Each structure stands twice: as C-alpha cells, then as structure tokens.
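thought: fold this chain, then report.
action: predict
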Amino acid sequence: MQMGEALRREGLDEHMVAARYANVVSRLEKDPGDIASGDKLLVEILKECSRQMEATQPAGDGAIQVKLVHNVERPTRKPTAEADPNGEK
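observation:
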C-alpha cells in the first residue's frame, strides 16, 4: 500500500489537509507576529502529506503512461535518375 492511500484510510485526506492549511492561514492573517514553531511544523507536515497524496493519484481517467521505443531499420533507397541534386523530382 502506498503512503498516500494509507493516509487516506486513516482519515487524513485532501479535504482535511486543505482545512488545516486554511486554519493556519487564517491564524497567520489575524496575527502575523504570532507564528509559533508548532505552526511551522504543521505546515511542513501538511506539505509532505500533500506530496504523498499527489504521488498516488492516477494520471487521469485510468490513463497509463506508455513509453514507446522502436528501432526499425529503414530500407535503403536507390537514387533515381529523375531526382535533381536538391532531392526534388
């Protein structure tokens, strides 16, 4: 199980993280000089939780990223008499 999924199962989902962010922001707006070390730690924890949850999100509606790698030899072409030096016919 990935960390983001485990956090969600324990009740720490995107809505809760957003609510906690909003709470810290509103407290800082009321009194910017009253920033406690606990607030800074809470913001750091919320940032890390956000990263963990975003890392487990799918790319889209079930989309899967595919990397196509191919190495197909091209056939050798014989020069034609009709072609001019610039490669045009």
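thought: worth noting. The CA atoms of residues 37 and 52 lie 23 Å apart.
final: tokens above.
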